[in-house]
Amino acid sequence: MTRSTIGIGLAAALLLGTFTAAPAWALEDQDRAQDGVRNGQFQPFSQIKSNLERRFGGRVLDVDMRGKGENSEYEVKLLTKDGDVILVQTDAKTGRVLGVKGGR
Known about the structure:
- By secondary structure, the chain is of the alpha+beta class.
- It is built from 3 helices and 4 strands, in the order αααββββ.
- The protein has helices at residues 3-16, 24-38, 45-56; strands spanning 59-66, 73-79, 85-91, 97-102.
- The protein has a 4-stranded antiparallel beta sheet.
- β2 (73-79) and β3 (85-91) form a beta hairpin.
């Protein structure tokens, strides 16, 4: 299984709240994200996903969690409606876009 396939599984699991067959690091990210949402530390990824899809168009291909605690970020790979693949870093607590890489 490739990292991309696992990332899509992680994205689906975060959105649906279910577990998929994934390596330990992906399950740790998922558990950390779910704990952070329950504790009010992070925004639910579904909310961030909706905001990013509305802002950039397209759909989510992959999501990873980066950082720890207050410095946690969602790193989201999006396929835009124009066919570009972009990487968007968002603050996990506020949902604010911190950076965008790729595209035209």
